[in-house]
Amino acid sequence: MKSARTILGGLALALTLAACGSSAGTDDPTAAEGGSADGPRSIKVGVLPIAASAAIDVGVEQGFFADHGLDVELVTGQGGGATLPAVSTGELAFAVGNPISVLIAETQGLEMKVVSGYSESLGEGHDTTAIVVPEGSDIRSAADLPGKKVAVNTLKAGGDMNGKEAVLKAGGDPEAVEFIEVPFQDSLPQLDSGNVDAAWLVEPFLSMALTDGHRVVSYLYQEAIPGGQPTMIAYTSARYAAENPEIVADFQAALTQSLDHVQADPDALRAVLPEFMGMPEEVASMIPLDRFEAELNRDAMEAIAELMARHGLSDERPDVAAVLLDD
Hints:
Order of helices and strands: HHEEHHEHEHEEEHEHEHEHEHHHHEHH
Largest sheet: 7 strands, mixed
Oligomer: single chain
């Protein structure tokens, strides 16, 4: 039997900073209102190179965005640190990313607006994100992570914040954990080579690791905020929202259709993963998926803001209301 590492072959090469999805039909990165008055408006939307991002690609393929007069180009970035500045400058009209980056931006005076919920961690059972270790590791739970090196895709984001809270709740010292920035696609090789002791992974990398015999030692999102929390949200800049209210409203409506569609029919998302991520069909057909929901979990957002202040992701507690479009 081939290992998941072999099965996924060229996946790492596919997960680079490259454009994917439908063409916007323009070379102007700021042409958010491209096209004639009667034609579609072209927008660029930033996404992350993970399985959940494909939900918006499903909406593009189903024609939900076209039905609302939007011609969407999806642009892939490694994390919020890459996509958020592009939204701030207008290079991207919208982005789908973690809520922590948006809340950090609020504390730094960058005016961002959350336009929609997107995906949430699972409240119980096998989650779509976890910290894993090699099979022979002596790490058994979050309590054993102090003094260890843990790979996360970006610092001051979901991996280290939730990891620190999971360690704290397990009775350990979260400040004694060394979090190291490693792209998701490189985390397993770094783990197998011994350069890190554990790695925070999301799908499809989590299923890849488990197939290869690695063990879950912490479902950190569940341990940090029981009941589930937003893993990704959709956002834009306050300026863009003020100048383009019709585009924002149409984007919200089309995204809601997309998320409802994949939540009701998860196989529709799995069907686009082979092309969207360069993933073999047999892998795409078996991975678990996040819960997709356009309605934002406000209570969980407040809990995230609290953890950000507690674990030093921001100097002050972010004001959640300040980043919500409708507040």
